């Protein structure tokens, strides 16, 4: 099945012996010139790219005090070394977070520190060179920007920020990644990552209305471009067609139907994902975000609600107001933006929707905290709400719920292995190996509690797990949407 070795699942998470350079070959395809240029980057490696790369690094450090502190502050304590799922799954020492950081740090030192300028060998500083660029291209595309390492770093050094900076520099000198840059281009051209045009979207949604009517006997609507609707739902485009994502979308529609909330999707902003963050490009991240603002204004909605998508929620929760605000034209009684989990949770608390847990009795459920939700955002008005609210929604929908081991969930959660713009077939070996720690934790609850449903609120996690679980002998349909469970349990009232 695989032309690489699949890591074993073990009783305890083992820390592997290092194997130098075993993942040096792992590189994603480089973006073609037309995709580079449509995002405002040079089509291919520019002539004086070494100079340009150093110049861009200087700009980034000057523009971000955080980045400079991250590059200056590391004391090589080693606390982060065994915290990255890619190191645990691959054994490559350059996948230790501190080593990954050092790939950029050694260039930073060479050009921007006194010691590095005059005594480079003493401080491990090196010139920008083709070998360095190759290593950057490999190993900064082996970081899913999950931020797990930063939780354990006594200085809070965030490798994700360093990885974003490296990718931004590579884009600026003309060596961008195909997967991310093509996808961003599709959002600008068509509105979503999938390149699903408006007529196909409308068709798909009509098909869903028919499916729900047939299955549940209730005319649940999936409205699109409805002017004057109260709520604009922005969701990952995977929700429109892929399993198990689509069950989540059906769940949102049923929640709005049951609560009598007037909502709509937008064919213009038909994508919650924002891959601009993965490539560290503020300009592209802003351009994607502005589409949501424009759609909200055109449709005249009062609220914006995000569907189940991990990094989209990070961009939305942490940056949307800065990137595309102010949202002073929306109803001030609701947070901008709001997560669908917050909406459903609130309706459950107020008794505005009714759930029959027994509808999910075949499911023995555990929950995967998605990195970007867990470590880069919050939900509700309580500390740790991003951990509490999804679990409360699940527990209101099912009778059998079991958490995975504490060191593998909540702020210590392991990445699915496909985040940060790495969900591409050219990185399959990395994705399978990087999933090992999560699969290990899952195996334990399968053994102990017969868990048969892994719930998630991230489109990337869902796609990644559906693909990699069979490598670890789990069925691919074990992964499901949280709102898929809500969809099964919700009581819709009078049938037609
Ligand atoms: S951010 Fe995540 S993927 Fe990147 S080095 Fe840290 S733990 Fe590894
Ligand atoms: S935990 Fe922080 S300070 Fe320690 S080696 Fe890692 S990045 Fe450096």
What's the short version?
By secondary structure, this protein is mainly alpha-helical.
Can you characterise this structure?
The chain has 2 domains: 33-176, Fumarate Reductase Iron-sulfur Protein, Chain B, domain 2; 185-402 and 451-489, no CATH class. The protein is globular. The protein starts with 32 loop residues before the first helix and ends in a 7-residue tail after the last helix. The chain is built from 21 helices and 7 strands. The strands form 2 sheets. Strands 2-1-3-4 form a 4-stranded parallel beta sheet. Strands 5-6-7 form a 3-stranded parallel beta sheet. The chain is mainly α. Strand 1 (231-234), helix 12 (245-259) and strand 2 form a beta-alpha-beta unit. It has helices at residues 33-38, 49-63, 65-73, 85-90, 97-112, 114-118, 130-139, 148-152, 159-173, 178-189, 198-216, 245-259, 282-299, 310-324, 340-349, 371-376, 385-397, 428-434, 436-449, 459-468, 482-489, and strands at residues 231-234, 263-264, 303-306, 338-339, 365-367, 453-456, 479-481. The longest helix is centred in the middle third of the chain and has 19 residues, at 198-216. Helix 17 (385-397) runs parallel beside helix 21 (482-489). The site of one iron/sulfur cluster has 16 residues, from helix 5, helix 8 and helix 9.
């Amino acid at each position: 099945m695989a032309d690489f070795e699949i890591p074993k699942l073990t009783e305890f998470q083992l820390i592997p012996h290092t194997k130098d350079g075993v993942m040096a070959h792992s590189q994603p395809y480089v973006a073609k010139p037309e995709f580079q240029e449509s995002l405002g980057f040079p089509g291919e490696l520019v002539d004086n790219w070494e100079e340009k790369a150093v110049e861009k690094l200087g700009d980034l450090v000057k523009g971000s005090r955080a980045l400079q502190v991250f590059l200056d502050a590391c004391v090589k304590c080693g606390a982060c070394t065994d915290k990255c799922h890619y190191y645990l799954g691959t054994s490559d020492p350059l996948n230790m977070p501190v080593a990954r950081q050092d790939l950029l740090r050694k260039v930073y030192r060479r050009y921007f520190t006194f010691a590095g300028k005059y005594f480079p060998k003493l401080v491990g500083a090196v010139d920008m060179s083709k070998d360095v660029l190759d290593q950057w291209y490999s190993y900064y595309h082996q970081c899913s920007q999950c931020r797990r390492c930063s939780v354990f770093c006594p200085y809070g050094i965030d490798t994700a920020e360093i990885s974003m900076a490296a990718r931004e520099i590579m884009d600026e000198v003309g060596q961008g990644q195909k997967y991310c840059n093509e996808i961003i281009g599709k959002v600008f051209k068509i509105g979503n990552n999938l390149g699903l045009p408006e007529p196909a979207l409308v068709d798909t949604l009509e098909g869903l209305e028919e499916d729900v009517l047939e299955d549940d006997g209730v005319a649940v609507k999936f409205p699109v471009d409805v002017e004057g609707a109260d709520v604009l739902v922005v969701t990952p485009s995977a929700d429109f067609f892929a399993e198990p994502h689509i069950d989540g979308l059906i769940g949102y529609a049923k929640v709005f139907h049951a609560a009598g909330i007037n909502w709509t999707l937008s064919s213009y902003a038909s994508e919650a994902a924002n891959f601009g963050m993965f490539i560290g490009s503020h300009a592209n991240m802003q351009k994607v975000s502005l589409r949501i603002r424009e759609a909200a204004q055109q449709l005249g909605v009062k609220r914006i609600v995000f569907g189940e998508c991990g990094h989209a929620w990070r961009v939305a929760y942490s940056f949307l107001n800065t990137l595309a605000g102010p949202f002073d034209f929306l109803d001030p009684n609701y947070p901008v933006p709001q997560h669908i989990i917050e909406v459903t949770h609130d309706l459950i608390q107020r008794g505005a929707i009714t759930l029959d847990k027994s509808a999910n009795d075949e499911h023995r459920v555990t929950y995967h905290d998605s990195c970007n939700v867990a470590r880069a955002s919050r939900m509700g008005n309580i500390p740790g709400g991003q951990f509490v609210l999804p679990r409360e929604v699940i527990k209101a929908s099912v009778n059998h719920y079991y958490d995975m081991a504490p060191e593998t969930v909540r702020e210590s959660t392991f990445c699915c292995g496909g985040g940060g713009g790495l969900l591409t077939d050219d990185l399959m070996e990395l994705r399978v190996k990087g999933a090992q720690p999560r699969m290990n934790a899952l195996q334990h609850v399968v053994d102990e509690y017969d868990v048969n449903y892994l719930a998630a609120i991230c489109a990337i996690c869902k796609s990644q797990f559906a693909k990699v679980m069979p490598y670890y002998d789990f069925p691919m349909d074990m992964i499901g949407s949280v709102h898929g469970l809500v969809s099964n349990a919700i009581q819709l009232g009078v049938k037609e």
